[in-house]
Amino acid sequence: MTQAARPVDYTRFKVADSEFSRLSLSDLVAARDLYHVFLMRHPNLIATAIGRYRIRTEDSWPNDKRRHHGTGVRRLDNSEVRPYSWPCILAFVDKWQNRKDFTARPSEMVPPTLFLPDGRSVPVCVIEAPKEVTTEIAAPHMARPINNIGAGSPIIARVQGNEYLATVGCLVSDSHRVYGLTNRHVTGDPGEVVWSLIENQVERIGTSSSKQLTRLPVSSLYPNLSAHDTFVNLDIGLIEIDDLSRWTTDVGKIHQVGQMIDYSGANLSLSLIGCQVCGIGAAGGLIRGEIHGLFYRYKAVGGFEYVADLFIGPRTADNSGARRKNAKRVPPFATLPGDSGTMWMLEPTAVGKNGHPQGGTDGQDYLPLAVQWGRNMLYSADRTRPQSYVLATLLSKVCELLEVEPVRGWNVNQDDTWGALGHFSIAARAPLYLSGRFPKLGKLLANNALIISHDDAALEKGDFKGMGSADFVPMADVPDFFWKPRVGKQGHTRPFEGPNHFADMDQPNPQDKTLLDLTKNDSFIDPDKWQAFYETVNDILTGKPIEPVHRGLLPFRVWQLFDAMVEFASNNEPDKFVCAAGVLTHYLGDSCQPLHISYLHDGDPERPVTHTFTKGKKEGEKETRPLGQGVHSAYEDAMVFAHRAEILAGLKQQPAKVKASEQVTTGFEAAKKTIELMRDTFSAIPPDRLVQTYIDVGEGGKAATDALWNASGKQTISVMRNGAHLVALIWESAWAAGRGETNVTSTAALTEEAAMEIVSDPDFVPSVTVDKIGKLLKRPQQRQLRAISRTGAGQSEVESRRVVASS
Asked: CA neighbours within 13 Å on the CB side: how many for 725?
C-alpha cells in the first residue's frame, strides 16, 4: 500500500539542486533511521537504500528545448542516475500506486519527503521492484581451473549431504599466513574442510579458519553514521590453504589488480553511486555492473534491520544526455548461485577492446572494492524475468577487522624474504649517497632508476608489479621474485639462490666462536674457511648437520657481484653493469636487516615449543618450532610496510655522501665492508631483543607491529641508511676499478625486456653454494692482502690503486 513519489518538476530543478545537493551520506542515513519505525510499518515497502534520485529515461534533460515529464511506473530498468541527480533515499515497493489511490488513507503513503530535526528535507525516490520469493539453488555452470586456484575459482562446500558452489574472492595475508577469502556461510565452522574443482576433479584445498565475520552493528563499523538497531551483514570466511604453490594471485584475464580502495565512515560518500564495477564469479564469469545504492536495507527481523554496504546491478545504457538511439550497448548482468565470495573491483573509466584498461593490460587500474555475499532477485523490468542484484561488503572494512591485506602480486610469501618495500627503498635512495665524483655513473644510474627500483609514488603505496608473475621485475627484487625457488614463476629460478640472502653470523661453533668473532681476522673472510666452520655446526632444532642450502654466504655474494661489475665496466657493458648494480642492492639490503644475519631469524630455536596441528592434512601431528616464530614477517614485512612513510623520509634526510677515502678496490674488501655493516647492525638492533619484544606481545597483527616499531623503529631507519650508503660506495668502487668513466660509452636506459633477458641467463652472476663460490671469486694475492691490512681508513684512492697495480 504505497504510492509513487511526486513527478519531477523541472521548473524547480535549480532550487532542488541547491537544496538537496548539500545533503551528505550521514544526513541520509540519519533521516532513514529517524523514520525507522514509520517506514517499517508499510507492508509493500520491501527495501530501502541510500542513493541518488533516479529519473525516468524518457524524461527530458534540463537543457532540452522540448520538455517531457513521465508520470508512469518508475522501475530500475526505465530510470537512471544522471549527473545532476540529487541525494535521496531509495524506497523499493512491491506495487506502484498513484497519489490519488491514497486520498482516503494518506497515512499509508510513503512520503515523498522526510524531514531532519533541523528542518532540512530529504527526498524519497520510490521504485517498483517486487522480490522473487524463490530462487534456483544449483549453478548452471562453473569455472574449471586447469591447475592454479585464484580469484574467481570455484569453492565446493559440503553441508548436510549436499554440495554448494561458491567463489574465491582473493588471497589475503596477515604477514605470516596467506588465506583464501570467501563467505563465512561457505567455509562454515573453523576446521571444516573446503574443496575445489581442479582439472575436473574435486580436491581438498584447505580448512576453514577461525578468522571469520558474521554481522556487526552499523554504529561499531561506522561510528560517524547514526543508525540504531541496524546490523551490517559481513559474512566473511577465510580458508587456511593446504598447498600455497597451487594458488595464483591473478584475477582472471585482468591478472594483477591495483591497490584496494580504503573506505571508512569518514571518506565513504555518494560519489560511489553510478560507478562502474566488475567481478569474476565461479558461475557468472566476468560480470560488469554499476553501484546503485549504499547501505541497502534488505530485511527487518525482531525489531532489527539488516543492510549491505553496496547494492550492485546492471549498468545504465547512457547517462550523458545523449539520445537513447545513440546509447551504448549495455553489457548483460547476471550474478548466479555460486558467485558468493566474488571480489568486485572499481573499473577504469576507459576500457579497450580487449577488456583491459586503455594504455595497459596489467589490470593496475582495476581496484578491489567489495566482496559479494548475496543477491536479491527483483522484477525490475515490467513483466520480464527477475533481474539479479548483488549485495556486497566493503573489502577495506573486512581487512581492517581481520587484520589482513590483499595479496596482489605474488603467489608465495617466504619467511626469509624481507619486505619488497625494504629492498626497493634502499635501492631507490642509494643514488642520493653517491659522491658526485663520477658523472657518467650518476647519469647511467639515473636513466635506469626504474629498471633498478620504483619511484616514490609506488613506494609510498607499496604498489609493486612483477612479483612472481611473467611481468618485469625491477632488479632490486630479482633475487627474490625471479631467481629464488618456489617464488619466481617465470621459469628462471636457481636451485642454490637461497644461501646468497643470509648468513647466521651469531651462531656459535663447538668452541663457542661465531662468524662475527672469527671474521675479526681478515684471513677468515674466505669461503673455504666458512665451509669448514659449517661442517662443525649442527642445526639447533634438529641436531643434524646444516644442509648446503642453509649455509649462508651473503658477503661472498657481494664479493662476486663486485668482481662482475668491475668486469662489466671494463668491457663497456653498461647494461650488465646496471643489472648487477640493481641486484647488488638486494643483498646489501639483506645485510642490514638483523633477522637476515642471525640464527634467530624467525624465533629462538634454543627455546623450542611443540605445536599440535588441530586441522588440515597434518591434524594430530606435532611440530617443534622456535619460540617467537612469526617475528620475521612481523618485523621485516608488516612493520616496515606500516611505517614506510617514516622510513622513506629517513633514508632521504641528509644522506651521508661516499668519501674517496672509503673506496674499496677488490671484491675481498667489498665482502669485508659487508661484514662491518652486519656488525654495526647487530649493535644497533640485537636480534634477541627483536624476538623477545615479539614474544612479550603474545600476538601478531598490529599489536606486534607497534611494539617492534616502538622498540627499534629509529634504529631500523639508521641501519637502512647504512645499507644505502654501502650500496653507493660499492657502485662507485667497482666503477672506478673498471675505469667506467673512460671505458663506458653509453648511459642510455635499458628496456625492461633487455634487463629481464640479462638476468634470465643462468651464467649471469651464477648462484652457487658456499663450497663452490670460491672458484668464482677473484682472490687477492698474499702481498695484496698484507697491503690492504696496512692501509687505514685514511688511505687515498690513488694509493689504493697503486696496491692493486703492484700485485
From this structure: 21
DSSP state of 389: E
Torsions phi, psi for 253 (to 5 deg): -75, -5
Interhelix angle for 420-429 vs 644-652, to 10°? 20
Q: 386-400: b or e for each residue (b if 16 or more CB lie within 10 Å)? A: bbbbbbbbbbbbbbe
Q: 293 near 273, Cβ under 8 Å?
A: yes
257 neighbors 237 (Cβ within 8 angstroms) = no
- Which cell numbers in the block locate residue 715? 634504529
Residue 719 grid coordinates: 641501519
- Domain spans of the chain, in order of start: 10-128, 149-406, 420-603+655-806
Among 152, 401, 135, CA closest to 280 = 152
**Long-range contacts of the stretch 798-803 (C-beta < 8 A, 24+):** 800/663, 800/664, 800/665, 801/665, 803/665
To the question of domain 149-406 being in CATH 2.40.10.10, the answer is: yes
**CB of 392 within 8 A of CB of 234?**
no
* Grid cell for residue 431: 643514488
**Residues 765/771/777/781 CA torsion (nearest 10 deg):** 180
Inter-axis angle of helices 701-737 and 420-429, to 10 degrees?
A: 40
**Grid cell digits, residue 56:** 525516468
Model pLDDT for residues 101-120, shown as the tens digit of each residue? 666 666 667 788 898 888 88
Give pTM, 2 decimals: 0.57
Q: What span, in angstroms and rounded, lies between the C-alpha atoms of 366 and 98?
A: 43
Helix (H) or strand (E) holding 731: helix 701-737
- Cα–Cα distances (Å) from 530 to 212, 518, 554, 597, 771, in that order, read 48, 10, 11, 14, 8
DSSP 676-716: HHHHHHHHHS-HHHHHHHHHHH-S-HHHHHHHHHHHHHHHH
Angle, alpha carbons 696-702-703 (nearest 5°): 25
d(CA 496, CA 487): 13
State pLDDT tens for residues 265-318.
677 888 899 899 999 998 888 999 999 999 998 887 777 889 999 999 998 865
Strands 367-378 and 193-198: unpaired
